[in-house]
Write a structure and sequence with these properties.
819 residues; mainly beta; Immunoglobulin-like; Pectate Lyase C-like; 37-stranded parallel beta sheet; eight-stranded antiparallel beta sheet; 64 strands; globular
Length: 819
């Protein structure tokens, strides 16, 4: 067994003295070997629809418990299991569950038989095992301490309508709506795609089928019945495998009627507008907006034409500005070259939520922002000092988080302040003038759109020329848009929770970030990014390099790290804590190391030194545990995105918790990587041709620009998390499987942001599965520095790779099939 721990014929790893790993006594070890040699059957009752496996041979009186299994997993692949009291586990029983008629949810008990499979690298909190290659793809059953569990059953995480309506919130839809169900394990293989089922279950047990129109691994589109009753339902999904026990779900969907906005039409032509591209229609447009506001809302309609306007306008509540079509209805501000900075007004359109723009185009030159919702200024005020951008809007400012219902559909925004022919004389070039005037791409100006801390936001089928900021959204859809800026930098900056970001075309920089709330519950899929512009060339990066507390100006509360004195199922008493009562309500408590490591729970309340949890632990912490109180970013699905000429795709600039990057493609880049993370999976991605760019766009290395001379999937462990007082594993529970890397790319896990590989006095990364990847045409295939422990390397293929394995501490790595 090259590069790994020694093992006897049973395949059970031994330490350097020849004793089995984990310190099992010789008699127990011999018995474990005999059990492994037998091919036995086990009978178990499947009582739940979560998790896994049948296990035997524990060392402790405490019952083993599980809280996470890497999914999906196929026959011949290695599964990673997390829980507690697992060190004595020596074998598991695995069974492929038959694909009988599924019936209806909830999953029903069944009797299954299993096959004994040896465990790899058991520890108190984790182990790995290989699903037998002879089994077929589908749902697998296992049992833990007499409690049966399942692998590859669907996990329903959240639900969102494909068209957002006024007054709705996350996990809420109207009767007859088409909803998008977000989760995991919805399609295990293409042959089962047509067998996917989605149903609603009422509190009385009645099951109502939904019509599934589209399904893939992480998303289902399904239609709700039009006569559906207004109540709360459980959403259940079956992926066609596992028969009656294969149902997964239970997430709740509230069905209710949306708020109704007035639909009276206010035709701008009736208020004197001409739309002839000559006449100033500003006052006519203003009168139409005022009439709609006076009526309590309505539709300001712009028939085909080009409406010349100037100055700024406020979009009233419950008003939609609608054109006859994006190609034929234009609002056009003056395109005259500015002579001084005073000619740039702060914005041309302002809103305070509850408005929409549809089927029209905007052309703007002499403004610092095109559409500026005052929620963006409320957000800035929460962080710094609150003020409206202009005095006239001060009465319309709302408290941060009080804005909702913004809908932009089929809108074009051409923000062109740099319009004009470049000059051979530097001082006459528009770019030089704007830099001198201080009008540069920045977080709060030179923006096509600025929106912050808003609920229920849809931006669909739009085109934006210019930077956009969509910060701290709650329940949002950004789909089918085109973001670019041929005149400067386009920076698509998004943040918040319960966001679908799908089918967008991005030419420029794009990133996810937190302002007041963490980024989490994100579905990012089928986007295409190309970037040959200025900036750091990032594609859909996660700028989460902050240990997030509460950052509001008026009551800042920092994250907290410390030890545990005692714990129960739903409380934790912390060592040395002295909190204000309930100050950490709504935070997340994450067990960083020790017993229960990897679990995260929401804090329901706290006393001076004790947290009360919103949900109980699966494995309570104890005096060995180190915890972090913060607001944790994560729960990300990053699926089938494509990037070209980007420094990195899906970069984790900081730390994510529970993220899967599946089926993505990136060409001419430095790959897909992060600084830290827990329960992160890179599956089936394709990285072609490693290319490094200008200085500052990637880890340190040996290139003339000072950057790394290679691309990679993996972690260069660094960032703000590593500045916390006590060390711990900054990378935990990672799966790198089924990826194809070529021409200069490698798989890499190391301490530090590139540069010299050096040994430190702690484990920086723990529990990594590197499984069935294909690596081609590279100097190095898989590189693991000496600070990584608990790695399984198996099933990888190498072609024209000079050094397939570069292992700085081979005793910490189990290589099951050396190249």
């Amino acid at each position: 067994m090259a590069g790994g721990r020694a093992a006897d014929d049973s395949g059970i790893p031994r330490d350097r003295r020849g004793w089995p790993e984990g310190g099992v006594r010789r008699r127990e070890f011999d018995e474990a070997c005999r059990r492994h040699a037998r091919r036995a059957l086990v009978t178990a009752t499947l009582a739940t629809a979560l998790g896994v496996v049948a296990m035997a041979g524990t060392q402790t009186d405490a019952a083993p418990a599980l809280f996470w299994v890497s999914e999906p997993v196929r026959p011949g692949e290695v599964a990673l299991v997390y829980g507690g009291e697992l060190k004595g586990v020596r074998e598991v029983w695995v069974q492929r569950v038959s694909d009988d008629d599924p019936g209806v949810p909830p999953p029903t008990p069944a009797v299954v038989t299993g096959t004994a499979v040896k465990v790899l690298q058991p520890s108190d909190g984790s182990f790995k095992f290989e699903v037998p290659a002879k089994m077929s793809e589908g749902v697998f059953a296992m049992t833990l301490g007499g409690r049966p569990r399942l692998i590859n059953v669907p996990k329903v995480e959240w639900i969102q309508p494909t068209r957002l309506l006024p007054g709705m919130s996350a996990n809420e839809a109207a009767p007859g709506a088409t909803v998008q169900i977000i989760g995991r394990n919805f399609v295990l293989h293409d042959s089962n795609r047509g067998r996917v089922k989605a149903v609603l279950r009422q509190h009385d047990g009645r099951v109502i089928p939904m019509s599934v129109t589209q399904a893939d691994a992480y998303s289902i589109l399904a239609a709700l019945p039009r006569d559906l009753g207004l109540t709360t339902y459980e959403v259940w999904v079956h992926n066609g495998s596992g028969g009656p026990v294969g149902w997964g779900g239970g997430a709740r969907l509230r069905v209710s009627q949306p708020a109704r906005w007035p639909d009276q039409i206010f035709n701008a032509r009736d208020f004197g507008a001409r739309g002839d591209n000559v006449t100033d229609d500003s006052e006519a447009f203003r009168r139409a907006l005022a009439a709609a506001e006076h009526a309590g809302g309505g539709v300001v309609y712009l028939p085909a034409g080009t409406y010349r306007v100037s100055g700024w306008f406020r979009l009233p509540r419950r008003v939609i500005v609608r054109g006859e079509g994006r190609e034929i209805s234009w609002l056009k501000w003056p395109q005259i070259p500015p002579r001084s900075v005073s000619e740039f007004i702060p914005a041309v359109l302002y809103g305070t939520g509850e408005y929409g723009l549809e089927h029209l185009s905007l052309m703007v030159r002499n403004a610092r922002t095109v559409l500026r919702d005052l929620s963006f200024d409320s957000l800035q005020g929460a962080l710094e000092s609150p003020r409206a951008p202009i005095a006239e809007l001060e009465p319309f400012m709302r408290p941060v988080g009080d804005t909702r219902d913004v809908f932009l559909r089929d809108v074009r925004v051409h923000y062109v302040p740099w319009a004009g022919r470049p000059s051979a004389e530097a001082t006459r070039d528009p770019q030089w003038l704007f830099d001198r005037w201080g009008i540069t791409t920045s977080p709060d100006q030179a923006l096509a759109l600025a929106l912050g801390v808003a609920k229920n936001v849809e931006v669909s089928d739009c085109e934006f020329i210019g930077t956009q900021r969509f910060l701290d959204l709650d329940h949002a859809r950004l789909t089918g848009n085109h973001f670019s800026n041929q005149m400067g930098v386009s920076w698509t900056d998004v943040g918040g929770q319960y966001i679908v970001f799908e089918g967008n075309q991005i030419t420029g920089v794009s990133s996810w970030r937190s302002a007041l709330v963490p980024v989490r519950h994100l579905y990012i899929a089928h986007n295409v990014s190309r970037n040959i512009e200025r900036g750091e060339r990032e594609a859909l990066s996660f700028d989460v390099n902050v240990v997030l507390g509460r950052r509001e100006r008026s009551h800042r509360l920092d994250a907290w790290q410390g030890g545990v004195t005692s714990a129960s199922a739903d409380t934790v008493r912390l060592r040395g804590a002295a909190f204000q009562p309930d100050s950490y309500r709504g935070f997340d408590v994450l067990i960083l190391t020790g017993r229960g490591a990897g679990q995260s729970r929401s804090v329901g309340g706290n006393s001076s030194d004790t947290l009360t949890l919103a949900q109980p632990w699966d494995v309570p912490p104890d005096g060995t545990s180190l915890v972090l109180l913060s607001r944790l970013p994560g729960h990300v699905i990053f699926y089938r995105n494509v990037a070209e000429d980007a420094s990195v795709l899906g970069e984790i600039w900081g730390t994510l918790y529970d993220a899967v990057f599946d089926g993505n493609e990136v060409k001419r880049s430095q790959g897909m990587w992060g600084l830290g993370g827990w329960f992160v999976q890179w599956l089936n991605n394709r990285l072609e041709v490693a290319v490094s760019y200008h200085a500052g766009t990637g880890p340190r290395g040996g290139s003339p620009e000072g950057g790394a001379e290679y691309g990679y999937i993996g972690f260069t462990v660094a960032g703000e998390m590593t500045n916390l007082p006590t060390r711990f594993e900054y990378v935990r529970a990672i799966v790198v499987r089924g990826n194809r890397l070529s021409y200069g790319h490698r798989i890499l896990v190391m301490w530090g942001y590139g540069g010299e590989r050096r040994r430190v006095t702690f484990v920086a990364a723990r529990d990594v599965v590197i499984d069935h990847n294909q690596l081609e045409h590279a100097p190095v295939g898989i590189e693991l520095d000496p600070n990584v422990e608990g790695v399984v390397v198996t099933g990888n293929r190498f072609n024209d790779v000079k050094e397939p394995l570069r292992l700085y501490a081979p005793e910490r790595v189990l290589v099951r099939d050396a190249p």
